[in-house]
Amino acid sequence: MWQFIKGYMQIDRNTGLVLEGGGMRGVFTSGVLDAFMKNDLYFRYIVAVSAGACNGMSYVSRQPRRARISNIDMLAKFDYIGLRHLVTQGCIFDQDLLYDKFPNEYIPFDFDTYFRYADGFEMVTTNCQTGRTMYLTENQDRQRALDVVKASSSLPFVSKIVTVDGIPMLDGGIVDSIPVIHSMETGHSINVLVLTRNKGFRSSEKDHKIPHFVYKKYPRLRVALSRRIVAYNEQLDLIDKLEASGQVICIRPEKVLDVGRMEKDTQKLEALYEEGYRLGDAFCRNFPNHIL
Question: pTM for the complete prediction?
Answer without folding.
Answer: 0.95
